[in-house]
Amino acid sequence: MDLRSFVATLRENARAANERRLLALTGNREAGVDAAHTAVEAAGVDDEAVSLVTTREGFRYHRLHPDHADELLGTTREIVIFDCHKGFSANALGQVTGAVDGGGLLVLVLPPLEEIPTQLSALVDQVAVPPFSRDDVGTHFRQRLVTTLRHHPGVAILRLPPSTAAPNGEHKEIEIERDGLSNRSQSTPPSDPHSYTDTPFPDAAYEACRTGDQARAVAGLSALSNPSNAVVVEADRGRGKSSAAGLAAAALAADGNDVLVTAPSVDNAAELFERAAELLATLDHPAAGESTGDEADAVDPPLATTAGGRIRFRPPPDAADLPSDPDVVIVDEAAALPVRLLERLLNAPAVGFCTTVHGYEGSGRGFAVRFRERLAASSYDVTDIELREPIRYGQDDPVEAWLAWTLLLDAEPPADQLVADTTPETVSYRTLTTDDIADDESLFRSVVGLLVAAHYKTEPDDIVRLLAAPNLELRALLSDGHPVSVALLAREGGLSSEQQAESYRGRRVQGNMLPDVLTSQLRDPTAAGSVGYRVMRIATHHAVRSRGLGSALLSRCHDEFSDSVDWFGVGFGATPRLLSFWRANGYRPVHLSVTRNETSGEHSALMLRPCSTAGTDLADRHSRWFRDRIAGQLADTISGVAPDVIRGVLRAVSVSADDDELGTCDPADRDWRVLAGVAYGPGTYEAAPHVFQQLAMAHLIRPVAELSPRAERLLVRKVLQCAPWATVADELGFVSERQCKRAFGAIARQFCEAVDSESGGDIIAEERATYEN
Ligand SMILES: CC(=O)SCCNC(=O)CCNC(=O)[C@H](O)C(C)(C)COP(=O)(O)OP(=O)(O)OC[C@H]1O[C@@H](n2cnc3c(N)ncnc32)[C@H](O)[C@@H]1OP(=O)(O)O
Ligand SMILES: Nc1ncnc2c1ncn2[C@@H]1O[C@H](COP(=O)(O)OP(=O)(O)OP(=O)(O)O)[C@@H](O)[C@H]1O
């Protein structure tokens, strides 16, 4: 059979079942790209409905570089071609696949299958981090890709000759390794939608739905008609959640509401606006409003209704300011947005989020892991809706299942009841090599499931790292063979003097996060010479947290490696609980980033735990430098960091109990007098900020007096971060600024009482006596 006839048959087979088919064009790159063009023609698909993901330029189709494959998220294409020869990554593979429509084709341009384990150079570059070389990179992920292509239904594999075009313009015979055809007729049909007459939305909104599930989502979204409601619509890809949001937006606007829509890019919200425009037309509202003339309005003119409502789009950072006070905000592809931005949207009267459940290829899991907690703690009534029935393609679509298998998108941690009784005494410590996880799919799925459920940063590229990266070590605590706590350690440092010099000059050294920051940002020319393990991820099963398992796992890792490296380290989005976890395990802070992490919305803390003389030198000097600079930063670049994070960071400084210098301060005699004046006389904070500054730093590092958490927060916000009185009073719940100022009298008394006679106690006693007489 020639290529054209084969593709036509495959496309027909896909259309009959409303499913996608995967077409692997294997051979050299030129032949593959040529064949992909032929395939588009043979499939009878318009060029406009095709996206080509490749590092090359100059094609007639919509073309994206693989690094920007995320722009396809939430869009629908009839054919997506992914040229995997260059620029391949697991993240990009996940991102492109979800966009293919039912009846469409995912075309992968690949090397011959038997060569894949030694090719896909971008994947190798991604994990071959210094001082390791490309030869050290493992092949398990690439083998896995070959296996899933060879064995999964719905995958057609063609072997291409070096050139598919014969001189007469006809196409040479191709070799069909697998035809990927299925005899199944249409996948299980979806349920029919029905109207929800008990909601404020018109019947037309429900009649426009494709499935019963989608109508249920629209009904749930109708809660947004009332302020103080938040609605979260969760689904796997292609279940029609954006469309449901579009129908809801139209119904809300038809009722006079101002609906602000945001998404990572306006393209991600295309389906939402299309559905909204259709419903507004059905409801007899003009489709477009007046042009705002505002370039920030990516959809301009916005959709408007005769009732005075409208639907407009703003990019996330603008939308977070809630311009022109919308009545309702709807966020599409919420999982792909930074948590920090999502949080700011919680000031809207009513807010809806559409998010992808197993689509961690889109974003990591910041939404599920971090943001969900914040939403639950907010004052909104939260409605949750889950959509199961696929719309973009049939229920039994094989390409969705192929992707889930290849990238373990649906991996889950072990079931709660299997691990419920686990304690640190009942577990065994295991090294999990890349062979171990490659050979035991169930173990691999549990490990990935644990990491995905716990970590907002986990993404498909991590599957590649787990299976191929030469610098990683995976350790786990197993209970009856089930992983309950896992740690992924990345070997860093040990760089040559040339690499150290380069890093000092500011050039990033891939895969060496801690040495890199210590050298280039914190200006330590020799920091990258010593070797350490950075705990890249650690996660304990949610059902057995706070039982000491995470600490037990770390302790076993420390025991195993402390003779072979100089330090252990960690970098993470700082929260008070995590700071206390790392502190309890002997890590002390050496850096707190001045900017927030885009995904977690948190400031990153770097911490070190030395285990050799060189490591101790490194940790000691960085700890000292950190203490020297943080006071200045607190009043400036990190003046907005939450006081409990600052309390946690400063308390962790004193982790090495034998450092006598820590937490000491030596105010002058006059300063003790001024402090006593605030405590017992008419003195005020304003006369003594410098004394409070010294005492606050000393106390927060190693407690001097018995202060309540609120008093400590006051020290952080007012004394160290220099926030205005009104702000501090408001944040800390004082009824007035006056009461907030008075609290300093009590704090001063507690400090005075804690000071012994040698330090300044005698002076304080003398001063106190003057007021009491
Ligand atoms: C580089 C990084 O990986 S940093 C991110 C660390 N990982 C995560 O945040 C993933 C989600 N969290 C988890 O998986 C776990 O909570 C871990 C790994 C942080 C701790 O594992 P555990 O087995 O609970 O640790 P362990 O029982 O030894 O210590 C618990 C202490 O850790 C701290 N802690 C931090 N976060 C949490 C949390 N989410 N749940 C419970 N305890 C937490 C607390 O101080 C806790 O003490 P407490 O129970 O007295 O309040
Ligand atoms: N009610 C509807 N009417 C017409 N087409 C619809 C409807 N619902 C969904 N679709 C079509 O089904 C496909 C998937 O819908 P949609 O983009 O809303 O799903 P999604 O769950 O948001 O997908 P993704 O996770 O990829 O963003 C789109 O092509 C969309 O046009």
UniProtKB/TrEMBL annotation:
Gene Ontology MF terms: 18S rRNA cytidine N-acetyltransferase activity; ATP binding; mRNA N-acetyltransferase activity; tRNA binding; tRNA cytidine N4-acetyltransferase activity
Write out the biased-composition intervals (Polar residues).
Answer: 182-198
**Record field: transmembrane:** none
- Residues in N-acetyltransferase domain copies: 552-611
SUPFAM superfamilies documented for this protein: Acyl-CoA N-acyltransferases (Nat) (SSF55729), P-loop containing nucleoside triphosphate hydrolases (SSF52540)
Give EC number(s), comma-separated: 2.3.1.193
Q: Where is this region: Disordered?
A: 175-203
User: What PANTHER family does the record point to?
Assistant: N-ACETYLTRANSFERASE 10, RNA CYTIDINE ACETYLTRANSFERASE
This one is known as tRNA(Met) cytidine acetyltransferase TmcA
- Name the source organism: Halonotius pteroides
Q: Which gene encodes it?
A: tmcA
